[in-house]
Amino acid sequence: MGYFPTKVVEAQDKEKPAKKSKAAPAAGAKGKKKGSFDINIKIPGLGGKVKTKVMTAFTRQLATLVDAGLPLLRGMRVLERQERHPTLKRVIGEIATAIEGGSTFSEALAQHPKIFNRLYVNMVKAGELGGVLEVVLNRLAEFMEKAQKIKGKVVSAMFYPAAVMIVAVVILAVLMIFVVPKFESIFADMLEGAKLPGFTQIVLDLANMIKSRTILIGDDAPWGLPAFPGPVIWGIVGFVILLKVLLKLKKGRWYFDKFKLIMPVLGPVISKVAIARFTRTLGTLVSSGVPILQALTIVKETSGNVVVGNAVAKVHESVKEGETITVPLDQSNVFPRW
């Protein structure tokens, strides 16, 4: 660290410095009461996460500094001073402190799993062992930039059909709740007691059913409580609860992820994104020097899809036994034959 001892003295009794260290914060606290206020409020659910865009910028900046020959610790301190994101700024400071204390960069990153996943940590570890940390950081930055670009393309491609569906549902709900029931009285006056055509009657009955407010709290709700469309609300609540329960089960999660891959219109898009994620992650790990078995384990955990993860697990077992990668990939019916 470039320090030179100017004076060496014998260490005092350990109990006395401990008492002084306890008293020091109290004195500092009294000083803060007179002058400035230091308020640190942590709200559960807010903070603790860093967006991919911010992480990409941090990785690219760190890669540039290390590639330019700046020491890692100094580079972290520079990034800490200029970082605006409060969570990432705090984490960078903690990582720099851990490096000062003798930890490796990968060990310091591993202490913050919510921000730096296993892919990030293992690639940095491989770069440290191979002495090519700047190369690995550049690859990580490129990997995250490409992933962000693909995610942006998927979101932009999904925006138009999602917007059309939402507008269509809202218009249909307004028509069925407010407009169509008005025609019932009009038709009653026009036909003078005659029966309506079958299809027209079905539409009116459906509109009345949607408009119905007779479950739990209806039009005659006690204590002046407002009425609400009970069947719709209870149906949505029941569906959400059932879906969450099923997703917690292994079999339910597998069926849901399988449905996402084969569903019409969106299925091919989701499947291509999963395949691109698998190949991009595995290629980045292997090219960075991570062993193939360890790389496959990381890819399985970061796949984001149970079906793809199971296929990668079979590939891992096949490679572990000395066999090829292609056979389990072909048997999974997830990856294309080409």
How does this model look, in words?
The chain is mainly α and 338 residues long. The protein has three domains: 96 residues, Receptor-associated Protein, CATH 1.20.81; 84 residues; 76 residues, no CATH class. It contains 14 helices and no strands.
Task: Fill in the keyword field for this structure.
single chain; 338 residues; mainly alpha; Receptor-associated Protein; 3 domains; 14 helices; 71% helix
Summary?
The chain has 338 residues and is an all-alpha fold.
How are the SSEs placed, and which strands pair?
Layout: H1 15-34, H2 52-67, H3 72-82, H4 86-100, H5 105-110, H6 118-130, H7 133-191, H8 198-211, H9 230-248, H10 250-262, H11 266-287, H12 292-301, H13 306-320, H14 326-331
